[in-house]
Amino acid sequence: MLAMIVLLASSQAGAEHEVYYRYVVLGFVKDAAGKPVARRAIEVVRDKTGFSYLAETDDRGLYVAVTRLGDESAGETLTVKVGTLVRKVTATFDAANHVDERGTRLDLDGSTFVERPASFHSTLTRFRAERGGQ
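Above: the chain sequence. Below: its structure as tokens.
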């Protein structure tokens, strides 16, 4: 019985790392002068559940928040919070596609959020390459 519980738990934990169980929100935070803001806390809240995912900007102002969303979560809203600034984004992806990463790029320029979904994949690829392909 114990072996079966361990086997089930390990298969579920492994599945959460699959592309169809995550949605990545990433972007850059810059101040009003256009300079990167380092060490800024970012919170992404899954509106359906209220669950929070936390991230922090690096020295370049880049943050990467990995949320847990499955195929059935397409179209759900997420609330991104940076200090007192708040922006809602919709998790848009093809639920049948289990190959491509799912996510969006949401930058904060001064006090204005700018969503740049077309830049998501290139930014994520560059981030991974800088971290040794992780």
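Helices lie at 2-15, 120-130.
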